[in-house]
Structure formats: C-alpha cells, structure tokens
C-alpha cells in the first residue's frame, strides 16, 4: 500500500515539483497576486467549477465533438493507411497531400468551415477529424510497411483472399503502430475542440474558458486550463486501457 | 498413370533481378522433378538463390521464365496446394496456438466442429495439444516450429515447401526436430521440397539431395540417399553417412574455388 503511494509520487514527481515551485513563487510574491495566484485558490475555483451543472453540460458537448471527430478520423485513417501500404498508386496519390497538408495550420480553415457548416458541432467535428487524420494515417502506413512480410505470405499460402488478409492479418499486425497514431491524435482532438469553441461557440468547455477569462480573474482561467489537462489525461489513459486489451500479445 | 506424375515439376526456371541498370541472373534454367511422396532437399552455398527458388515454387516471388507445376497444374501465385513453412516462425503472434493452426481451415470455410477435430489431430501429432491456449511468444523456438508444421499440415496441401525451417534453432533442438519431422512426414506421406544450408540435415532427412551451384543457381549434382527408414540419430556416425556428407561438402567447396566472375554473372536485357 505504502509502496503504491511512493510509486505514484515518483511517477508524478515532476508535476509535484512544478506545483511546489509555483506555490513558492506565489508565496514570495515577486509577481502580483492577480497574475500569479496561489494554487490553493486555483483548486478552490476548480472545485466550484466541477460541482456546477453548467460545467458538465459544457463538458459533455465538448466530449461529443472530440469523440465523434476522433472516431471518424480513426475509421477513415486506419483503412487508408493500410491500403496505402498495399497499393502503390494510392500511396503516390496521398503522400504529397500528407507532406504539404501536415505543416499547414488547419485551424486557419475553421472560418471557412463555419461558413459552410455553421457554428454548431458540424464544423468543429470536421476540423477535429481533419486534424486527427494526419497522425493516424502516417502511423498506420509506416506501421503496415514494417509488418513482417511472412505474416502476409503465410496468409496467402493458406488461401486467404486480399480482403481476409487485409482485415484478419494486416490490421491486427499493425495495431501497435495504429495505437501510436491514436495516442498522438486524441490530445489534438481535445485541443482543436477547445480552440474552435473559444473562437466561436455558445457552449462547450472552450466557450466556458473564454467566458471565465473575460472576468479577468486568473484563478478562473487557470482552474479551467487545469481541468482541460485532466480531461486530456483521462482520454489518453482510456486509450491506453483499450490498447492493453487489444495488444495483449506483445 | 496418375502415380507417375511428379508432385512438383519445374521446367527451365529462370529468375533475373533488375537492380538499377543491371540485370542479375539469380537462377539459370533449373529443371527438377519431385516424385510423389518423396523427401527432396536442396543444398547450396548461402546466397545461391535456393530460398528464392523455393519462394518462386510457393508463388510468393514472380519468376522470369519457365514453368512450375503441382500435380500437373501450373501455378502462378500462392495457394493452399503448397504448404509453406518458413525459417522464422510466421505464426500470428496475436493468436494462440489453436487459433493459429485453425486459421487456414477457417479461411477455406471448414465448419467449426470439423476444424476442431483436425486441429486437435495435428497438435497431438506434433505433441503440443497441451499448449493449445498458449501464445507463440510463450513457446520455445522448437515448439513454435512444431506449431508451424501443424499449421501447414492442417490445411492438407499437396506438397510441403520448407525454407530452412530449423535454421534458427540451436544444434540439439535441431537434431530433435529432424527426428520429429521424419516421424511426422512418414505419417503424413507428403511430398517435401526442403531447403537447407546444413549438409548433414539434408542427408539425414532426404531421399534425394540436390546440390545447387553458387549464383546463378544451377544444379551441380543430384544424389539419391539410400538409407532405410525410420532413420535415427546414430546414422550420423555411420561411414556411409560420412561419405555422402563429404561428397556434398566437396561439391560445395569446389564451388567456392571457382573464379569470382562466375558468382556474379551479369546479363544484359
């Protein structure tokens, strides 16, 4: 029991040290308290936010956008990455779009998407999907390219057609790389959801963040940012949990 | 009439690799028959193209010219009429032993109850039925290759193609596997084309040993091995075994002393 506590402390030591340093700076008072409040008052506000119904309403809307956008990206990106590894023409077609599209700040397209789809969930989900596609497609493609070719040969040898080979051999053999892509994509999904809600929305935790920051009380902003961090952490951990169910054989 | 037809018939098989502007001849017009029910090995210096040869027979690599027939039927691509066993274990790491062996049957639409019966039979044949729920990563190298053998036998191919299946095993496990393979082979009655760089392994297991030359691969000599079966490991110590071994060793080493130009022949076209 004690060992477990110690292990947790060791695992999150950097965060503890960060909090400690923060408290020291806040206590010494080198910066005005309005800009650099004590973490205790931040946590106080955080608790107030968490118990309010409005936060949970906003969170559920944001989560809906994050998860739908992310799942669409996974449903499109994984098969696309796998097919690119099998069909050269598709790879030649898609690779340039990846290399040019990846460095573009896609959030710049958001106003256009709003113009087409409105300020509701549609435009936000589309942008989240677009953002998540890149790491998912790229990880899946390179993972599939590195799959032991004997798995593919063996399946063909046993009489598997292309479709069987694709879904029953190539897909499971690529799952470790696919999860690497998904792990990179899920925080992006949350960031884009919050960002687009900050730009134009009347609901969601991004909207709540903007609303709270307009009060010019730093505790509110910091508490909300901290909460978003915790939500991101829970999303990633859930994905880890699913990954361990899937890749029990590694 | 049907009994006279060879299990595998290869005519004028040729393989040219194109790398950049150069075409490299890997296999030069090899013709070969594997009689029904016989165990035939190919030995040759490493890099001579014997694995490539087997991969072409398996349909995994495209040939440049020539024909490959299995029981008279010409083949172009991989198929379950030729059971291929690879050097490394090509078992699916995400499936347990049972499901690995059952998968080929599942793909070919064998009903579930029948699948279980067949898998049980072959896992018992390779003495691994107790390990049916293990993952490949939980088995030793020798056990993994026994599962691979059961997997290949399970879908009942016309012929077995084996690409240095014991190449990654330690010397002792290797000898055990040779005895095991002989036992399983004599029960299954399959025709086998076996590729190895280990001369003794070839002599111990085979009815016939085919010696390949270095690149480009051609047949140097065909040697019939006349030992009774079943053979046991004490055969290794017999003088006749030594004679076979030394003869093949000489053939392979003459090869080494040939001028360098012949091992890297370049053709245009």
Topology:
The complex is a heterodimer of chains A (250) and B (269).
Chain A: H1 2-11, H2 13-28, H3 39-51, H4 53-86, H5 88-101, H6 110-117, H7 121-145, H8 149-157, H9 162-199, H10 205-213, H11 218-246
Chain B: E1 8-19, E2 22-34, E3 39-43, H1 50-58, E4 65-70, E5 73-74, E6 82-85, H2 97-107, H3 112-125, H4 141-154, E7 159-163, H5 171-188, E8 191-196, H6 199-205, E9 208-212, E10 219-224, H7 239-256, E11 266-267
Parallel strand pairs in B: 3-8, 3-9, 6-7, 7-8
Antiparallel strand pairs in B: 1-2, 1-4, 2-11, 4-5, 9-10
Give a description of the structure.
The complex is a heterodimer of chains A (250) and B (269). Chain A has one domain (53-246): MetI-like fold. Chain A is 82% helix and 0% strand. Chain A is built from eleven helices and no strands. Chain A has helices at 2-11, 13-28, 39-51, 53-86, 88-101, 110-117, 121-145, 149-157, 162-199, 205-213, 218-246. The two termini of chain A are 29 Å apart. Chain B has a domain at 2-81 and 157-238 and 250-267: 3-Layer(aba) Sandwich (Rossmann fold), CATH 3.40.50.300. Chain B has seven helices and eleven strands. By secondary structure, chain B is of the alpha/beta class. Helix content of chain B is 34%, strand content 25%. The interface between A and B is medium-sized, with 20 and 24 residues.
